[in-house]
Sequence to fold (1386 residues):
Amino acid sequence: MATILIDGRACPARTDENLLQACLEAGADLPYFCWHPELGSVGACRQCAVKQFSGPDDKTGRIVMACMTPVTDGTILSIDDPQAREFRAGVVEWLMTNHPHDCPVCPEGGECHLQDMTVMTGHDRRRYRFTKRTHRNQDLGPFINHEMNRCIGCYRCVRFYRDYAGGEDLAAFGAHNDLYFGRHEDGALENAFSGNLVEICPTGVFTDKPFSRIYSRKWDMRGAPSVCAHCAVGCNTIVNARQGTVRRVINRYHDAVNRYFLCDRGRYGHGFTSAPTRPRAPMMRQDGIPVPVSIATALERFAAMAADGPIVGIGSTRASLESNFALRALTGAAQFSTGLAQPDHDLAMLVPALLRTTQARNPSLHDMESADAVLVLGEDVCVTAPRLGLALRQTLRRAAYPAADTARVPHWMDAAVRMLGTDAPSPLRVLTPAPTDLDPVAATTHRAAPDTLARLGFAIAHRIDASAPDAPDLSETEIQLADRLANALRAARRPLIVAGLQYANAALLHAAANIATALHAAGTDPALSLVMPECNSMGMALLGGLPLDDVRAMARAGRIGTLVVMENDLTRRLDAAALHDLLSAVPHLVVIDHIATPLAPLADLALPAASFAESGGTLVSTEGRAQRFLPAILPDMPVQESWHWAQHLTHTMTDAPHWTDLDQIIAAMAQDITALSRVGSAAPGADYRLDGRRVRSEPARISGRTAVRANISVQDRPLPQSPDTPLSPSMEGAYAPDMPGALVPFYQVPGWNSVQSLNRFQQEIGGPMRGGDAGIRLLDDAAQAPSDWHYDIPAPFSFGPDDFLLLPEHRLFGTEELSALSPPIAARAAPAALRLSTLPTGLEDGAMANITLAGEPITLPVRHDPALPPGIALCPPHLAARAFNAPIRVRLRRVDAP
Amino acid sequence: MTAPMPVIIGVTLAVLLGLATFLTWFERRLLGLWQDRYGPNRVGPGGILQAVADGIKILFKQDWIPPFADRGVFVLAPAIGMMTVLLSFGVVPVTAFWSVAGDLNVGLLFVLAMMGMGVYGVVLAGWASNSKYALLGGMRAAAQMISYEVFMGLSVLGVVMQAGSFTMRDIVLAQSGLWFVVPQALGCVVFTLAGIAETHRLPFDLPEGENELGAGFHTEYSGMKFGMFFLAEYAGVVLISVLLVTLYLGGWQGPLLPPMLWFALKTGALICLFILLRAALPRPRYDQLMALGWKILLPLSLINIAATGAILLLHAPG
Amino acid sequence: MFGILRTLWLTFLHAGHRRVTVGYPEHKPPLPPRYRGRIILSRDPDGMERCVACNLCAVACPVDCISLQKAEQDGRWYPDYFRINFSRCIFCGMCEEACPTYAIQLTPDFEMSEYLRPNLVYEKEDLLISGTGKYPDYSFFRVAGVKILGKDKGEAEREAAPIDLHTLLP
Fold:
């Protein structure tokens, strides 16, 4: 630690940071634009000028850019120095000369960093009397609005988009005043993280397009801390709502997980919460037709059903732990299913077991960024866990640090570090069946079938540690590749192995575990990350239950009276024939869900559940981190949380257990299930008080309280209260930068209305939250006996001329269940096609081919993709055939145009 | 007069209450006149029916007794306040030959006695309301009214000494030469001030003290019970005016005009004077009120008695 | 003592003074144009809604009686609904002061009593007038740098023509 003097005040500072960071950490208001905690400094905007003095005797000093000046012990600087103030005011005035007169119609207004900084520097009168330069805007697709007139040329957007996220299609054009940030032509921004431009841009050049349609100012929206439900990474989000609808989702900083960025699926996937098709009332089947009924009628009907025989519950990997546990309490543990069919069920159960028993770290995303060798084994993380893919991309930046250290360049000196790192070898090795977005930056890429990749993995493990089993019958190229990869991994200090469930291949997971074990034995500090498919897959694996196949067997045996399916679209899990068999063997079907599924019309009773935005609950991410989401909207009856429904259903039969709020369920769950015993610490309970008060969920200056409902009733109505959340329902309550990270409803501190106010909430810039980070890692506790080598080495992959292994081609947009219902995501979802590397005779690119998938004949256009390995066909899951999810052998037949 | 007693009482009550009701409107109009406003001018010709409208409104208001009040006393208090004022009128001679209750030989003493009783109405109202503002108002009323009763009694002694009688008719007849306001000027001033304080009229309405006590002793009163306090206050104004006329301004006596009219004219002028006081003067502080009573009015009335006695002795025959 | 008598005398003299009360409603006093009465939404000189749904009036309102929702057509922002709950309004004029487009204006009309409180909730169709109100010339979109139907980039006041990114000239 060093000590620096800011305007005569001694402040602690770290020597690996710059003066701007030190000033911000000291709580000083120093304006800046181009610096970003995650992107580092480039010194482009000249806004953070301060005066530095060479010693106590130096009265003159000199103006330096704080973001480009390293901290040294005893640095003396002045922010308030008149010359420095004048300099900064001048910079803002220049930046504002071309700024259009359009704050009232700018969606950034009210949370605009440029507004904040302009106020901070005191610039309030325009002296420039000449014409302003203007720019034409581009259509950047369904996610982002473009308004180039507002640009101040800080370069943050391209630095994020190109340098950080690896995008190619956003660039700076023109020069001096004509500087333009955009694409070479109109079109959707391709990168999976384009939505972050909204938060990165210090002004309103890039704004949220779906949000713009239902726009509200930041001060008018209730916020609630939430967790993204669109993949298993568990990114922390803030859900903003007003007038009972979700308006947008923005990033919530978590030091170890998503930090400053979200993927576009997470940011724009919330549209399903306000879909017009959403069930809003209990539907009961009468004479074969579902009709809306009251809660009481629905429960009476259920009581009658329950008298007919045993109840079996099917939970869901996209429902919260609490909802699943409440359903489990309704049916009993022996009648509770995970809702996963084989092989997904076994694989999901395998993951926590492997993570616990393998002698390797189970890394957080931030931890992954510092890996010095990464092996991605048979998982396209860029689509199954996009934010994890972005973390892996950052290993490249780390690869430049040794060169930077040699050149004595501080790590935050972004441009210089990247320049020095151009020659640094990439630590990324990507072995997948299909091309991934990480390929361009990977040192090695290899395409092969999942089984072949697993064999390669086993071979790598054997080459690192000879006691590990080797894969027999490897080809010469595979042996060379395995040698190369084994050497690279063994040479690393912190190697990272990433695998996942995308191709439902247990051998891949075992191979990854073998490599990690071998690396541990070789003396490195390996990490093993296994990517789960859905937001609560890990939670379900810890909770446990029967596979769907067992439920089918029970149904066939006539041991099910009522089947309760909660937040699970079985048409995505079972093919039509299997589902029909199951449902015809079950007398009564109850469906609890918050989206319209094809299953709901088949139900005798369909109950409307609350979505993630309207309920509280806990999700366990793929690293085993239990994280709480809180309701941003309190649902209007009869819509209520799935666990409430499960409770109501239970009470039609028995009185116990009686849970009235979320905390009671969490306590019961922690007591009942050992693996989840610490789940209560994921976030403060509803009895949490900050300074004796609840945390307010609305900004202090929320508007229209006495008018917003006045068209319905001019009388004031008492605020809705929820026993499930420590957030107050209004702007009354406590709010402080040191509130727990799990409860932050929005970021705002006096003078800092944009997301940049986050700096004040952190212990140090880019460090943990001052009030403690959200969530708790559940898999760290049990130090179980390390497992032995895994030996299930698959046979070499074989295929015939018309015979293909059809692999699920997961996509960023369109294949994930919930986000696919969101209009902007649906607009980006490409139609299903069959991708093949070698076209069978008689089929050409673009022709229609027929396959039998999940028991039904499917006709799809064929696309030739030479990057794929031979014998592999790719088809997006759930798009062509709803139930298709796992690899399957298919034969192709040409369909002639009629 | 030959009319039977109940008719006389009935007519008198009707006239007095009607007068009090009229005054509620008349006072506001007069205040308006002196304060460059209009006052109530909407209902009826010149707004005269405003008094009727107010009466109807107050009659139809919910007759509410607070649950925390002492019920019996709470109901009794306004009745006492009203009754004592009305009874006092009984002994006032309107003409040489007529007063309501005939010519009582202790007429003036009876009036003083009734005034003393009037304290109970206010004090009991404050006490029975069982609320702090009302109690404070009642306490103020007790201290103020009991104090000023002293000077009132002392101030009229000069008149009694000069007239040599407690009978109201005799007192008036004794002024046939010179109205007592001239020899008893000091007593007249003391009596006027004490009268205002006794009826707790502005500027001496500290028991109400709406700025600091809500509405003082009648904070908890509403509907017609409040109406009774309200009317009693105006009846009190009339009473003090009538007594001033009788004791100091020669009663019904005057040239040309019939005695009844003289009496009414003098009374009316005094009522206007009281309203002018209200229009012009701010309320004193409570300690100033008490100081005025004990440090100025008491010595003045004593001097008045002593001087009157001395002069009477000097001029006494023999 | 003399002061009191003088007060009485002066007050008495006021009986002969002119009364300051104006006999409303028979005599309507002249109200200045900037009187703070009923709130209206005005239109710009081109006849389009001036309100751009920026929400600044709503946030400036100390009693939170203004609520609106932004909508957008051809680049113009406008309120989808605009609601003022006049049963809460205190006619402080902060909304008018906050309005960046002169859209929301207070007018010299205060005769808006109702027997039913719900009738005091004014929607956009109740608020929107057909004229420009107190500011006849101002048009926000003529100075703002956003593109709307009929006004391309570079056509606002003091704007240069849009940059041609394909030119090779410096």
